[in-house]
Amino acid sequence: MEIVKKPEPPSGLSRILWRLPIRMYRLGLGGLFGNRLMLLNHVGRVSGERRQAVIEVVEHDQRGYVTASGFGKRANWYRNVMKNPDVVIQLGRRSIPVTATELPAEEAAEIMARYAPRHPVAARRLCKIMGFMVDGSVEDYREVGRHVPFIRFTPRPGG
């Protein structure tokens, strides 16, 4: 695994395209994404205003939903949920109150190593967007996982 560049959040036309899934969720079409993409409803760390982002669910189990911050720790949604971790996610039409916690690097590495063989095309594309050059080996993906923040969204009791 080689770090080729630091990813920059999208701007201009690419930002509009990246945010298109938010509009689809707002139109009630979130179910089209199945459990693969979730709508994150969070609060801006500076403005205090409501914010939204659509993020890929990398893994889901009884402990919650795991995502990765493809633009690293500079991503606004990541910084917002680290400051205010009690958020609400939406999968299809179902809203779930959750608490966000960053995973340790070794746990993130193992999750990325499991994700890549399940979704090889998406894993390669994701790595390219994040600025990593990978050879396709599980060990390379594991190393990517050590460099990317992974967040678990754990359902809150009574939620």
Mean pLDDT across all residues, rounded? 92
Estimated helix fraction = 25-40%
Counted beta strands: 9
Biggest pleated sheet:
7 strands, antiparallel
Instruction: Report low-confidence residues grouped into runs of 5 or more.
Output: none
Order of strands across the main sheet: 3-2-6-7-9-5-4
Structural class: alpha+beta
Q: Note the beta-strand portion.
A: 25-35%
Shape: globular
Tally the helices. Answer: 6
In words, what does this structure look like?
It is a single chain. The strands form 2 sheets. The chain has a 7-stranded antiparallel β-sheet, with helices on both faces. The N and C termini lie far apart (40 Å). A hairpin with a 6-residue loop joins strand 2 and strand 3. Helices cover 36% and strands 30% of the residues. It is built from 6 helices and 9 strands; from the N terminus they run βααββββαββααβαβ. Helix 4 (105-118) crosses helix 6 (138-147). The radius of gyration is 15 Å and the shape is globular. With 159 residues, it is of the alpha+beta class.
Gist of the model:
The chain has 159 residues and is an alpha+beta fold. Helix content is 36%, strand content 30%.
